[in-house]
Design goal:
By secondary structure, the protein is α/β, with parallel strands linked by helices. It has eight helices and 14 strands. The strands form four sheets. The protein has a five-stranded parallel β-sheet with strand order 2-1-3-6-7, with helices on both faces.
């Protein structure tokens, strides 16, 4: 049974979420202590975290940024804000998805299911350009240095890897990311592509992902690197 942790200071909303999630067969953990939240979240053993942006004493995005330095548990951000900037910031800090309140319960459950499906990535180790890529662990390494990719970054890499040397459209990548073409965000994809490029560059593969204007992206074949 998958365990989901709810970090939401609105008690009524927490209860609604618990009822909804338990009705779908998930185990639920509610966070009620917000005085030591930064320390508490690091101890989380949940399979997925629902994290509100507006929390007492700390911004949810800042909490996510700290969390991502140590753990890669999937996180879906919950917010009443509608600013596109908030969404881009959340994704840049490592959120796996983002949903605004009041949310549609069915859509939230679909988003959660999509994240769990993406967690079931193959455990095979991919070899590319002198790098070893571990999809299930979210790790990419050049033998000397190891870097953690977020779930979204790994999904993008896998899609590009499967068609190395060929153009992959933004629509293809967004479909793979969000699992539903109705809920895509162009800016979030751009942020994830930029982060993936930077991480590949850190491992000596600068320029590995090329932009083709109005067409998409190419991950160069390893022999071209």
């Amino acid at each position: 049974m998958k365990k989901i942790q709810i970090i939401e200071d609105d008690a009524a909303l927490r209860r609604e979420l618990r009822i909804l999630l338990e009705g779908e067969g998930y185990a639920v953990v509610e966070t009620e202590d917000y005085e030591n939240l930064a320390a508490e979240i690091m101890k989380s053993e949940a399979d997925l975290i629902l994290l509100d942006i507006n929390l007492p004493g700390i911004n949810g995005e800042e909490l996510l940024r700290r969390f991502r330095k140590e753990k890669q548990t999937p996180v879906i951000m919950l917010t009443s804000r509608t600013s596109e900037t908030d969404e881009v910031l959340s994704m840049s800090y490592g959120a796996d998805d983002y949903i605004t309140k009041p949310y549609n319960p069915t859509i939230l459950l679909l988003r959660i299911a999509a994240v769990f499906r993406r967690m079931n990535l193959t455990g095979n180790v991919l070899s590319w350009g002198g790098l070893s890529v571990h999809p299930a662990k979210g790790i990419i390494s050049n033998g000397e240095k190891e870097i953690v990719l977020t779930k979204n970054e790994m999904i993008i890499f896998e899609v590009l890897y499967a068609k190395a040397g060929q153009i992959v459209s933004r629509d293809e990548l967004m479909t793979a990311l969000w699992d539903n073409e109705e809920y895509v965000n162009d800016n979030a994809l751009t942020v994830n592509i930029s982060r993936l490029r930077n991480k590949l560059a850190e491992l000596g593969c600068d320029g590995a992902v090329e932009t083709r204007k109005k067409q998409g992206y190419i991950l160069w074949n390893s022999e071209n690197m």
